[in-house]
Amino acid sequence: NTAVVTHTGRYLSDVETAILQGAIADQTYENIAAQSGYSTNYLKRDIGPKLWRCLSGSLGEKVSKTNFRQAMERYQSVSSDQSAPPSSQSAPLKAMQCDWGDAPDVSFFVGRETELDTLRQWIVDDACRLVALLGMGGIGKTTLGVKLTQHLQSEFDVVAWRSLRNAPPLKTLLQQLVPLVSKQQDAQPSFDCLLQHLRSARCLLILDNFEAILEPQALGKFLPGYENYGQLLQILGDTVHQSCVVITSREKPEEIATHEGIELPVRSLKLSGLQTEADALLMPRACRGLPQPVRH
Prior knowledge:
Elements: H1 2-8, H2 14-24, H3 29-36, H4 40-59, H5 68-80, E1 97-99, H6 113-125, E2 130-134, H7 141-152, E3 158-163, H8 170-181, H9 191-200, E4 203-208, H10 227-238, E5 244-249, H11 254-257, E6 266-270, H12 278-282
Parallel strand pairs: 1-3, 2-5, 2-6, 3-4, 4-5
């Protein structure tokens, strides 16, 4: 962390730390994935290569998974012979703030590599401002949303998770979000204040169970009294800012349907069922010693 912070101004993320711990133990990416809960492809093809490039710059030599331990030993040897650099030469730390609200535990997670890759490209590479995860109840929208947030949290200054399961009025939601995105510098529950801070800081906001404020059979229309959420979605999608808001919902809000596009900063991803991963999902919950059927 000392080397990375000095070179980049940020700390190692949880997923990067998991890779380094595995590298120290001579583990394969498959072993690291099994122990950490991340997918092998995500570690091997995405985070891993970026991490080794980062460490190469931080440690001052070419670093890979196979020579990481030796590179660290050389770095420590050199560092012990040198005095610490003046604080004025150190890069400023990235003050990441996470508020997970009531996000569920997703320590057991399989599949969805393609969806995670797609969403990462949309949010990080394409700078999408508004993304909807859609699908029927129980298909895994919330779980995927949590895992996506874990993967992307190091890319943002502020991360906040909120569930709309109890249908909070928009003012209540803004009263929670504005202080978070402003890092306690502002408390005005208004569109303008939220947008101002989404412009000045890079924030990732996740609004789970968005269907709770939608009419059940009205094709994306809001419940009476919640129409201002539609105004919020329109502002988030239409106005330039450097943040991203992700919603999970069984139904697609009308404001997303009319503003989305593959080349636009508003997009939606509809989840299909898991097929090949079904056995892996059921295995930890498998029941043994079921009683035999009673015969009459």
